[in-house]
Structure formats: structure tokens, C-alpha cells
Design goal:
By secondary structure, the protein is α/β, with parallel strands linked by helices. Helices cover 37% and strands 26% of the residues. The protein has a domain at 4-71 and 104-174 and 274-349: FAD/NAD(P)-binding domain.
Length: 388
């Protein structure tokens, strides 16, 4: 007899978990609070660990088909001087594959397509969960008062998770990372190389996508609350902040239309959660370890969560025992990545003192490329478990 799972959240972590559980023979239902599938959003870069996870979940080829091979080839300073350079061949040799860049809605659609006839209920707002225990199923309560029970509940409901408190009531609340960010996707004006630029108190990334478009992001240290909600004003503030950075950054921002950009403040969990599971409920993705984006592992770790979760609960007849194994495997790794992301945020984009920036840049230029590859390998060399 197949077992039932409710996945709360149709983001990257939730949909990966749903695909992996489906492959393991579970009856899966997905609840998403948004009223309809999201068709807009920023880009994302999936490193080797995420691609291996998607392969294990059965959707890796579909994701590669709608993305573009990418690699962080050049890290520059604000004047355009190269600090670190690595080739695609060096990355592939060290990690086994280069990354894939794509528009987030295309990633989510590939994950949805992998579910086939699995039910995804939009506009379903989960407000609470009874974790259950060895003898009782978990029960999800929706905003309209309806309840749904299942052998397993995957709480992948994001950085502002409502279900986190049922698993880790003493968890710290998300805090402002210290940076605001601008994100945009537009027709590619001719950028051919994925690149990152670290300047005083900020960072800019230019990432060609696999559909003829360009994804750019820009972050700047400062107080929260600077986003106005008016796209034209937010874009104007980005153009002003990065007007003196190297080409083609000002030109890319100049051809970006207001409706193509969004500005938002970044929030993350300040420290690892004391636990990721309770009873028959598991936290996954940003609900479990929302982090600064500086090591490029936010979505990647959510993908890992989904695969390890499905493997852990499918290898035993006891969901509770399987979730204990999931936590044993995932909590040390995600805690390590979370701490690294915070450290990188402070060293990288939040380093505003020009003398310290100059020192950082001198050190980076002196380091051999293999040091950067070793840093990437720390997380991207992960191998997923085989799904039963």
C-alpha cells in the first residue's frame, strides 16, 4: 500500500521533494498559497550538486533542456579588473559538470511537468500542522478551516514559513541580511559571459539564460526599507548606485525597463534551526535554512533536501524513523552552508571600507584559481542518495 504525502509549497524545494517522493511510489499532493502558478521571477544558477539532485529526482534532463550551461568565469572589481578567472573546463574537471542558468519560472514548470497528474492546489494557505507521531498521521490546517491528513508533511513554505513553529518553536525569526537587491530578466543585449563584480558595499551579477534573455542582479549594503514598490523609482536607484561601475553594467541597467525589475530586501535565518523534523513533519528549503545568496546555494540546498528526504522516508516502514535519518544527514550540511553564506555576505558585498576592499582584492588576485574551485567544491561536489 502506498503512503501519502502533503507538500506545502510549490517552490523549488517543495516540487523537488514531490518529484522524488513520486518516484519512490508515494501518493503526493502539493498545496501552494499563491492563487496560480508564478510566471514571473528572477533567474537562478544551479551548481553541480543541484543538477545531480535533479537527476536523482528524474527531472535533470528536462531542466537542462530549458537552461544554459554557465560558469562563474570571471570575478571583477568595480573598475572591471579581473580578480579571479576560471574556465569551464577547469570547473567541469573539478566538479564533474558546469552549472546551468535559467529563468526560475522555467525551472518550476519543468518540476511541475515531472509530476504528471499529481494534484497541485493553488490558493491553499496552510496555517498550522499537527505533527502527528508514530501512531497518528500529520494534519494540516488551512486558512479556511479545512484539514488534510497524511503520513508525511513536507513544510517547504519559504523564509516566512507558517509551519516552522510547529517543528521548531524556539527557532530564531528571519533577520535582514543587510543588503537590498535588484533583480531583472530582459532580452539579452549582447552579454556572452557569466560574471560577478564585487565593489565597495555591493555586488553585480550578469548571467545569460538559455532562452535569449539576460538575468542580472545587484545588491547594495544599507538599511532595510529602501524599496519603494514603484518600479521606475527602484530602477532609477539601481542605475544611480551602479552608474560608475565597469561596462557593460551601466549599459545593461540603462536598457532594462521598469516593469522588468524588482527590488527587495534580503532576509535569512541568523543561525541554524535547533531541529528540522518533528513527528511526521519535515522542514525543507528556505523554511529550514533561508540564507544569504552569496554562496549560490539557497535553491541548491532545497533540491538536496527534497532528494534526501524522499530517500530517507522511503527506505523504512516508519516515517518517523526516516525523518530522523533525514535530519541526521541534512542538518549538519545545511548548517555549514548557512554559516558559510553569512560569512561570505560579510566578506564580499558588505565590505564597504575602501581600504579593506583593496586588501580583499589584492588577496583574491594573488590566489590561484584552484582556491576558488576548492571553495565551490566544498558544496558542489555533493552526491545524492539513490532513491529506492
Amino acid at each position: 500500500m502506498s503512503r501519502s504525502a502533503i507538500v506545502v509549497g510549490a517552490g523549488i524545494a517543495g516540487l523537488t521533494a514531490a518529484n522524488a517522493l513520486l518516484r519512490c511510489g508515494w501518493d503526493v499532493r502539493v498545496l501552494e498559497r499563491s492563487p496560480q502558478p508564478r510566471t514571473t521571477g528572477a533567474g537562478i544558477v544551479l551548481l553541480a550538486n543541484a543538477l545531480r539532485g535533479l537527476d536523482a529526482a528524474g527531472v535533470g534532463d528536462a531542466v537542462r533542456a530549458v537552461g544554459q550551461r554557465a560558469y562563474p568565469g570571471t570575478l571583477r572589481d568595480g573598475a572591471g579588473r579581473a580578480l579571479v578567472q576560471v574556465s569551464a573546463e577547469e570547473i567541469a574537471a573539478r566538479l564533474g559538470t558546469v552549472a546551468v542558468a535559467l529563468h526560475r519560472p522555467r525551472l518550476q514548470q519543468a518540476l511541475l511537468d515531472g509530476l504528471g497528474d499529481v494534484s497541485v492546489t493553488y490558493g491553499a494557505v496552510a496555517v498550522d500542522v499537527d505533527p502527528g507521531d508514530m501512531a497518528r498521521p500529520a494534519v494540516v490546517t488551512l486558512a479556511d478551516g479545512a484539514t488534510l491528513s497524511a503520513d508525511l508533511v513536507v513544510a517547504a513554505d519559504g523564509v516566512r514559513s507558517r509551519l516552522r513553529a510547529a517543528v521548531a518553536p524556539d527557532a530564531a525569526q528571519p533577520v535582514y541580511v543587510g543588503s537590498t537587491t535588484w533583480l531583472a530578466v530582459l532580452d539579452n543585449p549582447g552579454v556572452t559571459e557569466m560574471s560577478q563584480t564585487w565593489g565597495p558595499g555591493g555586488e553585480v551579477g550578469l548571467i545569460p539564460l538559455g532562452d535569449g534573455r539576460l538575468y542580472w542582479y545587484a545588491t547594495q549594503v544599507g538599511p532595510a526599507g529602501r524599496a519603494t514598490g514603484a518600479a521606475a523609482a527602484d530602477l532609477a536607484s539601481a542605475r544611480d548606485a551602479f552608474a560608475r561601475w565597469h561596462d557593460p553594467i551601466p549599459q545593461v541597467l540603462a536598457v532594462t525597463a521598469p516593469e522588468q525589475v524588482q527590488q527587495l530586501d534580503l532576509y535569512g535565518l541568523p543561525r541554524p534551526l535547533p531541529r528540522m523534523v518533528r513527528g511526521r513533519v519535515a522542514l525543507a528549503g528556505d523554511a529550514a535554512h533561508a540564507m544569504p545568496p552569496n554562496v549560490g546555494q539557497g535553491g541548491c540546498q532545497g533540491i538536496e533536501d527534497g532528494v534526501v528526504l524522499a530517500a530517507s522516508v522511503s527506505r523504512t516502514g516508519s516515517v518517523v524513523d526516516g525523518l530522523a535519518e533525514y535530519e541526521r544527514v541534512r542538518r549538519p550540511r545545511t548548517s555549514d552552508v548557512l554559516r558559510a553564506a553569512w560569512a561570505s555576505a560579510r566578506i564580499g558585498e558588505q565590505l564597504s571600507n575602501r581600504a579593506l576592499v583593496g586588501l580583499r582584492n589584492t588577496v583574491l588576485k594573488a590566489l590561484p584559481a584552484r582556491v576558488m574551485l576548492d571553495g565551490m567544491s566544498r558544496f558542489a561536489s555533493w552526491t545524492p542518495p539513490a532513491l529506492p
